[in-house]
DNA sequence: AGCACGCCGACT
DNA sequence: GTCGGCGTGCTC
């Protein structure tokens, strides 16, 4: 028997199956989708079994050395999904597989020193031996770094053969949480007998026996429980176990990140007529087991989630499974509670806040079939269910569903692949659907479902626009307009809460010299440095470079340096100046770095411990605070002028979403949008809650400029340390494209990227706009093969992104 | 990725 | 004349 194996080396040269003999002892249980250890050249590597065959074309096959998994970690479906994904996104198949699995299952390769001849080593290089014995699994390069004075001895010992370097694969980093229990086979009388025979000094042991005598029955007890109860160390129990009076057992458990949270169970809410009408076609698709994509356009507060929940309920009753995707930032405790509350232990939650072990356990619950619903961010789309009945993608327009590294996939495309495979519906939900999806729905490719009224007839908040140019003319130079300031004051008096939203992108705090206009740039990237007040440092957000805030301008040596832009920190400062009595919670990358701090801040705000919540993107989504009656957007047009054809769409989506945060409960909400471009259609339509008009106008723009959804895009980005090399290659590639594609395709560029240099590498890009190019994938693949790209710093790098979301 | 093979420069 | 640089090429 032969196995076709993809070997764990993520370069295109090895991105093909290799054949291996299956040793007799593995034949009975080996299956596709299992990971194996195989010899590859001089090394041993992990690999994924694609298939098992009778024979092979290749002679002199090597044999699989080890089978790692007792059961497959990739289902047949996921194996073929991996093949499709690597073909569609032009990435090695290994990357596709890795994206589907939790991080703990990835191979961990190390080179370590093995001692061959301990005696000689002890004689000739005793200090070296000491070090090696102390740190037996130390990585070889690490060892050289930490013990540079030993490098001579190391080399000499190596030459003499006392030691050698071997490759070490921690092929299984799976960790299991185990609970240790203590129990006893003895009866109470026997225990008392034992206790009386113990040495007088064994007080602690007697205590332990006492504890068991007083137990109701011979139940097993958690060891930590006993230690805590009796306030003793583990040694006395160990003694008793050793003597055979007590028995220790261990049991493997899932780590449950939500174990210590009490979540109240909920039941289905009665649906409004609109909700019922929305649910009906989805249920029909479920019932008839046909694949269909639904676009559920529901305004904020229209009760989309309840529709999802009841569709899932139906799935569970049929014994099937469901995946629910939510954007990472919307994966708030509030959202999780809703699903846990309805389905309890049926739900696995997968998001970046979990530890590696926790993620593995949640994933394992899916694989082992102990849960039937997976709620998670983008990568949860790969949840290894075998009997999928429904996939929901909430906030469908979110750009975080597109992965920006290999494999550059969009969760929506994967969802549709899986939906077709399982013949089940895919539901895309949004208050502000992406133009691509809405256009498809209008064409009838997707089934459009509308939920255009809020439940309980609550009205959408009133939105007021403020032209900041007029504020300037009225001599108001603060970042708060008169209207916003007055309303903030008003809420403060009424003891109601406000949310202030700052879109920091495009508005970071850069440092400029007021004498000569010099802006402090990163020495490695063509981008200005961002000022971090707390540390008094300037940092580059692309390469991590940092330097102290200069006292003089590096250009003209003038001393009039000043930081510009409106970071959240600056808003906070100004807020405390103008409204000193207001209690402010600031939420941005700086204040939410630590695990759990995100949740803590939100809980504090929810409990009314602050009057104003000030934050970036992350506060725009999914928050539901009844006492918030005012939402202020400080700079609505901040990202309108980014070099991205989706900037209007993003602005519209963000404004709509932020506005939805106001007036979630009985109190009516108000929204103030400050902007320098009040006449821009995305801002006007957002303030009128008018998706349709925005869609129509934006579609005209996309049509005129040949952008999606009228055209598809493919972006090729090259980078190299030398400009000439990049430009040359980019031009050659553009030529290839022009020759290989039809006249209907447009090739733009090569031009320098929006950020022309990152980490000392120059960046050029080519964009292809096309409608139908059946040859595009194979042409791009040939280009990829033709221009060797290495991983060393001075190698050329080519990235190909189909349907890019990041235009830089 | 990691290693061998292989073809050109400064040295015992 | 050799040791060693790292440029291609292969790994079932």
How would you briefly describe this protein structure?
With 808 residues, the protein is of the alpha/beta class. Helices cover 34% and strands 23% of the residues. It binds a DNA duplex (12 and 12 nucleotides) through residues 2, 4-5, 7-11, 13-14, 17-21, 38-43, 45, 56, 58-62, 109, 167, 791.
Strand order of the largest sheet: 13-14-12-15-16-11-17
The biggest sheet amounts to: 7 strands, parallel
Subunit arrangement of the protein: single chain
Approximately how much helix is present in the residues?
Answer: 25-40%
Helix- and strand-based class? alpha/beta
Overall mean pLDDT stands at 85
Model regions low in confidence, pLDDT < 50 over at least 5 residues: none
What is the count of DSSP helices, taking H or I runs of 4+ residues?
Answer: 26
| Radius of gyration based on Cα positions | 31 Å
Could you say which overall geometry the principal axes of the C-alpha atoms support? Answer: globular
Number of strand elements? 32
Cα(first) to Cα(last) distance is 49 Å
Beta-strand portion reads: 15-25%
């Amino acid at each position: 028997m032969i196995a076709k194996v993809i070997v764990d080396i993520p370069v295109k040269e090895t991105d093909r199956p290799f054949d291996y003999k299956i040793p007799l002892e593995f034949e009975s249980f080996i299956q596709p989708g299992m990971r194996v250890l195989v010899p590859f050249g001089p090394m041993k590597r992990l690999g994924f079994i694609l298939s098992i065959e009778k024979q092979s074309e290749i002679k002199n096959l090597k044999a699989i050395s080890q089978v790692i998994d007792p059961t497959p970690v990739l289902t047949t479906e996921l194996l073929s999904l991996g093949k499709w994904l690597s073909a569609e996104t032009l990435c090695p198949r290994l990357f596709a597989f890795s994206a589907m699995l939790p991080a703990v299952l990835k191979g961990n390769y190390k080179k370590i020193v093995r001692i061959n001849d301990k005696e000689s080593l002890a004689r000739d290089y005793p200090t070296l031996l000491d070090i090696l014995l102390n740190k037996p699994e130390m990585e070889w390069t690490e060892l050289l770094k930490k013990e540079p004075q030993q490098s001579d001895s190391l080399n000499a010992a190596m030459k003499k053969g006392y030691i050698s370097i071997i490759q070490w694969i921690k092929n299984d980093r799976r960790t299991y949480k185990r609970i240790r229990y203590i129990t006893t086979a003895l009866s109470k009388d026997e225990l008392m007998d034992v206790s009386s025979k113990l040495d007088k000094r064994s007080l602690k042991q007697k205590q332990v026996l006492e504890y068991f005598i007083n137990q109701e029955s011979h139940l097993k007890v958690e060891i930590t429980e006993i230690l805590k109860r009796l306030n003793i160390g583990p040694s006395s129990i160990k003694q008793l176990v050793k003597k055979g009076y007590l028995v220790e057992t261990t049991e493997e458990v899932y780590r449950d990140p939500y174990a210590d949270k009490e979540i109240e169970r909920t039941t289905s809410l009665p649906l409004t007529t609109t909700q019922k009408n929305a649910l009906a076609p989805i249920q029909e698709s479920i019932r008839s087991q046909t694949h269909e994509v639904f676009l559920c356009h529901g305004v904020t507060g229209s009760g989309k989630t309840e529709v999802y929940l009841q569709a899932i309920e139906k799935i569970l009753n049929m014994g099937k499974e469901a995946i629910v995707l939510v954007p990472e930032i919307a994966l708030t405790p509030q959202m999780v509670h809703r699903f846990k509350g309805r389905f309890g232990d049926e739900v696995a939650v997968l998001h970046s806040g979990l530890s590696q072990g926790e993620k593995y356990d949640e994933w394992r619950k899916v694989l082992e079939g102990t849960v039937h619903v997976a709620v998670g961010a983008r990568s949860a789309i790969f949840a290894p269910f075998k009997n999928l009945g429904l996939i929901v993608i909430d906030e469908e327009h979110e750009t975080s569903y597109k992965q920006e590294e290999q494999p550059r996939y969009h969760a929506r495309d994967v969802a549709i692949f899986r939906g077709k495979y399982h013949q089940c519906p895919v539901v895309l939900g949004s208050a502000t659907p992406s133009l691509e999806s809405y256009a498809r729905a209008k064409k009838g490719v997707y089934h459009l479902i509308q939920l255009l009224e809020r439940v309980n007839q609550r009205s959408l908040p009133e939105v007021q626009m403020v032209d900041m140019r007029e504020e300037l003319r009225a001599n108001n130079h603060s970042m708060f307009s008169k209207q916003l300031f007055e309303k903030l004051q008003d809420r403060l008096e009424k003891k109601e809460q406000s949310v202030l939203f700052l879109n920091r992108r495009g508005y970071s705090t850069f440092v400029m010299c007021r004498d000569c206009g010099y802006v402090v740039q990163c020495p490695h990237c063509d981008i200005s440095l961002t000022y971090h007040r707390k540390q008094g440092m300037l940092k580059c957000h692309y390469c991590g470079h940092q330097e102290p805030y200069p006292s003089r301008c590096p250009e003209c040596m003038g001393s009039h340096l000043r930081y510009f832009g409106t970071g959240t920190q600056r808003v906070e400062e100004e807020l405390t100046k103008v409204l000193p009595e207001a209690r402010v919670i600031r939420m941005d990358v700086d204040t939410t770095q630590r695990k759990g701090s995100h949740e803590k801040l939100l809980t504090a705000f929810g409990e009314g411990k602050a009057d104003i919540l000030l934050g970036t993107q992350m506060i725009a989504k999914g928050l539901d605070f009844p006492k918030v009656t005012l939402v202020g957007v400080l700079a609505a047009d901040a990202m309108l002028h980014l070099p991205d054809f989706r900037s209007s769409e993003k602005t519209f989506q963000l404004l709509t979403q932020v506005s939805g945060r106001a007036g979630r409960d009985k109190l009516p909400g108000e929204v103030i949008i400050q902007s320098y471009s009040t006449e821009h259609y995305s801002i006007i339509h957002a303030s009128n809650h008018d998706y349709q008009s925005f869609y129509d106008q934006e579609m005209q723009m996309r049509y005129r400029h040949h952008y999606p959804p009228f055209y598809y895009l493919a972006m090729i980005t090259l980078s190299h340390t030398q400009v000439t090399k990049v430009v040359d290659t980019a031009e050659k590639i553009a030529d290839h494209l022009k020759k290989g594609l039809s006249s209907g395709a447009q090739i733009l560029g090569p031009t320098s990227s929006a950020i022309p240099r990152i980490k000392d590498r120059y960046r050029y890009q080519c964009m292809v706009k096309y409608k139908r190019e059946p040859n595009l994938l194979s042409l791009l693949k040939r280009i990829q093969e033709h221009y060797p790209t290495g991983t060393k710093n001075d190698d050329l790098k080519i990235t190909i992104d189909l349907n890019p979301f990041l235009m830089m």
